[in-house]
């Protein structure tokens, strides 16, 4: 009853108020709820099931590439956090501190991990002696805390879930290869499971990870033209190795410092799913990670044989897809809009007439297309349709990204692009951090990445006009 | 090299020093490591892989019984923790407090969750209005923190991993059924995946969960005769419902309070695996959760064809079991003791002579039995053997538990049983908390549970001699 009531109210149109549209979907598709804990959210069953599917896709790939999961403590002593100078400067201002355990004041305060490089380093320093112990390819699934001032569900919360990979290697070359390998794993999952196209590239010096040598990123574009950093992979060089004494005897018997990487991807991906695929009727969940891939809605379910047929179809389909029957006493119309709000990729309708004709009706969430399918062929048709929907969603998102990508050769064009065209701006940059911050100040657009696929937009920096050979993607960002 | 060196040193004998034997296994089987964070441990890849398998077994059963996973914040504001009086009294003395976020002092301190009833209650109170919204069957996988003074890896640590189920129901009957259902799920996993026999029963009032009406438990017995609480399921009644206002409109349109349960099982199960199954050569991992079920050790691997054959066998076996080849340049003898330490259930040896005879040698970790098997039959033989090992390990553990279980009808017998026979003591109890605490004071044995399967040991309380009709399992415990 209460559910039905919620559904009749329309959600805010995304053209009218994108931020409110986002919040409405989060609430009405029952993805997250606020808690009484400042900046922390509750991930509700439907969104958590998406995360479990994303996690399974990632974890499989992590293991296939030789990684092992571990679990490190959630606390980091202040002195440990301080060991790597740039790292502590980057993270200390935004951590939560435990100062009291039971009734006792702690002699050293502990931060709740914002990321766990320091803990992994301390452990690696103890367990690695020789090149024979390398590489170490560890990953952990956990939550981390960053004391953000302003928060939004999934996109920016004081606590979020993520994976953090931490690896150490014998040579620079191996570590650099690992960094790119894991960026490619993230790309694979985001594009091929989430149907979200991304731009791959390297972060500028001012946007890179605190304590690292290089940060690589995948950047996605939301419906409102704002960019979202969807995953990052860092080459940490030997910075932490030197701070934590991570040394090993090499093949010549000499002591060397290890070369290190770390990489992470978070629950903000669910925010990206909402903002890349959603529309004014709600969410569209990419089929490969959808908790419900097919929702069976019986029509005229009080009539003889309808519910039995629905159950039979569910039984058959459950062998190949995630399927559910809604045989509640709500009207079919209510059910249609409920599952549209929740973005279930395929609705299967079956009623007395369909049974008579030995057919079912499949309705795509993405295009609304209705397809009549012989009852005998549902397995193959549904499988085909889900793949088809994935492709369509990816292509639609890619088209939007391309349409919202402009080029600029001077600041006037740049400002115009950001304000009127929205989206990514491709422009040349001289490499000077001053130009980068000036661009951000003037337009609100930060450098998103120096893409691997370079184009020569012009020969001069869009900001200072000096010689420039780097093409950069810029954009306002989440 | 460093690994080999570690392995030649024998571990402490369990008869000599059980605690040191335990610590040696944790270290040498590479299960956990200490961190610089007081009371927190690092779960290393091999132990974490066991936890992943345990988790998968539990999660499957949770989902089959209709539960959904969610994620709640890791922090609880002080005022929220205080809402249920008994609950806060039970947990507040042992929580870690966050008092500072970034540079700012918090106006209200936040505890790091020791358990999440309060957060679930707050959420449920918001989302449940009618009996149609019930039951809510949620679970979460996370880490929790309890500020323990003395800690031991897996058994008692300031932070540990667990599942916490939280459900609310329309009727008391449904909630009580759920409490027992989940206790049975825990029993199923502990007995049928971990090969650990347990005693099922109810906790006494003084041992029950802070804030609940009844706590049910499964109790296992370790090799040294000490008991270990392996999982608990709580019927919370309407205590939290009243404190948090969790009300719904029932079928007659009247406002009612929900009936509630919670249940949890933790990484201490890994401690139980060590102490129930291990021996003086190391760990014995129960086959069904073993990260490596079969280790292939090539013999005379430099000879032509040996490594190829090992790879071929791995290829075949990997379709049905978790299998690894160790083709490192260590001597087979080193490898044998390494995988014995790690408790891999089956070792498969293959050398030139075996290849000639078209056979392999299978060696059981639990009984050391060697079995020669025709190469064509390895799939069926290995499958059979793993089941066989599971049964044997379970039966061996059950035998130890039975041998170490005594009965006592008076305090002299009780003291004698605890001191000389070790293990569980079955004795009658009048139900008075004073007798319970007196028994603990005198013997060090606490009440473990009032088992579902009652026996009439005598007619009078073992402590005060008054009439008694409850048989209780007592024991010193971890």
UniProtKB/TrEMBL annotation, chains A, B:
Catalytic activity: tRNA(Pro) + L-proline + ATP = L-prolyl-tRNA(Pro) + AMP + diphosphate
Residue stretches making up the Aminoacyl-transfer RNA synthetases class-II family profile domain: 17-287
GO biological process entries: prolyl-tRNA aminoacylation
InterPro entries: aa-tRNA-synt_IIb (IPR002314), aa-tRNA-synth_II (IPR006195), aa-tRNA-synth_II/BPL/LPL (IPR045864), Anticodon-bd (IPR004154), Anticodon-bd_dom_sf (IPR036621), Pro-tRNA-ligase_IIa (IPR002316), Pro-tRNA-ligase_IIa_arc-type (IPR004499), Pro-tRNA_ligase_II_C (IPR016061)
Class of the enzyme per the UniProt entry, highest EC level: ligase
Source species, domain of life: Bacteria
SMART domains, per database record: ProRS-C_1 (SM00946)
GO CC, one annotated term: aminoacyl-tRNA synthetase multienzyme complex
EC number annotated for this UniProt entry: 6.1.1.15
Gene3D superfamilies: Anticodon-binding domain, Bira Bifunctional Protein, Domain 2, C-terminal domain of ProRS
UniProt GO molecular function: ATP binding; catalytic activity, acting on a protein; proline-tRNA ligase activity; transferase activity
Cellular localization per UniProt: Cytoplasm
PROSITE patterns with a match to the protein in the record: AA_TRNA_LIGASE_II
Comment text on domains: Consists of three domains: the N-terminal catalytic domain, the anticodon-binding domain and the C-terminal extension.
SUBUNIT field: Homodimer.
Family to which the UniProt record says this protein belongs: Belongs to the class-II aminoacyl-tRNA synthetase family. ProS type 3 subfamily.
Role summary: Catalyzes the attachment of proline to tRNA(Pro) in a two-step reaction: proline is first activated by ATP to form Pro-AMP and then transferred to the acceptor end of tRNA(Pro).
HAMAP family found in the cross-reference section: Pro_tRNA_synth_type3
Protein name: Proline--tRNA ligase
Species whose genome carries this gene: Clostridium fermenticellae
Gene field: proS
């Amino acid at each position: 009853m209460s559910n039905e009531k919620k559904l009749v109210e329309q959600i805010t149109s995304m053209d009218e108020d994108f931020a409110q549209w986002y919040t409405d979907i989060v609430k009405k598709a029952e993805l997250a709820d606020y808690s009484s804990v400042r900046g922390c959210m509750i991930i509700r069953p439907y969104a958590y099931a998406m995360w479990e599917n994303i996690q399974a896709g990632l974890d499989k790939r992590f293991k296939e590439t030789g990684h092992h999961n571990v679990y490190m403590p959630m606390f980091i002593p202040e002195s440990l956090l301080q060991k790597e100078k740039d790292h502590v400067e980057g993270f200390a201002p935004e951590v939560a501190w435990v100062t009291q355990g039971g009734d006792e004041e702690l002699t050293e305060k502990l931060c709740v991990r914002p990321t766990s490089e320091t803990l992994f380093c301390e452990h690696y320093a103890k367990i690695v002696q020789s090149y024979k112990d390398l590489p170490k390819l560890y990953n952990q699934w956990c939550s981390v805390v960053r004391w953000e001032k302003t928060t939004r569900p999934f996109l920016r919360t004081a606590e979020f879930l993520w994976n953090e990979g931490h690896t150490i290697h014998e040579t620079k070359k191996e570590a650099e290869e690992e960094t790119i390998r894991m960026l490619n794993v993230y790309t694979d999952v985001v594009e091929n499971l989430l149907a979200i196209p991304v731009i791959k590239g390297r972060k500028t010096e001012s946007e890179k990870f605190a304590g690292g040598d290089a940060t690589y990123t995948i950047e996605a574009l939301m419906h409102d033209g704002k960019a979202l950093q969807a995953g990052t992979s860092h080459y940490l060089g030997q910075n932490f190795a030197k701070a934590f004494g991570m040394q090993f005897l090499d093949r010549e018997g000499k002591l060397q410092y290890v070369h290190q990487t770390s990489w992470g991807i978070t629950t903000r991906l669910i925010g990206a799913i909402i903002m890349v695929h959603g529309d004014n009727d709600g969410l569209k969940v990419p089929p490969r990670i959808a908790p419900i891939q097919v929702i069976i809605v019986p029509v005229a379910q009080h009539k003889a044989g309808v519910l039995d047929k629905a159950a039979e179809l569910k039984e058959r389909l459950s062998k190949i897809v995630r399927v559910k029957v809604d045989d509640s006493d709500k009207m079919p119309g209510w059910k249609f809009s409920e599952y549209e709000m929740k973005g279930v990729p395929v609705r299967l309708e079956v009623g007395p007439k369909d049974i008579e004709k030995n057919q079912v009706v499949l309705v795509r969430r993405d295009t609304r297309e209705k397809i009549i399918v012989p009852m005998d062929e549902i397995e193959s048709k549904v499988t085909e349709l889900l793949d088809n929907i994935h492709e369509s969603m990816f292509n639609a998102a890619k088209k939007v990204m391309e349409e919202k990508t402009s080029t600029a050769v001077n600041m006037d064009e740049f400002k115009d692009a950001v304000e009127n065209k929205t989206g990514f701006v491709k422009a040349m940059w001289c490499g000077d951090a001053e130009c980068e911050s000036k661009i951000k100040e003037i337009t609100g657009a930060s450098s998103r990445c120096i893409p691997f696929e370079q184009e020569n937009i012009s020969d001069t920096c869009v900001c200072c006009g000096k010689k420039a050979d780097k093409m950069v993607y810029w954009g306002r960002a989440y």
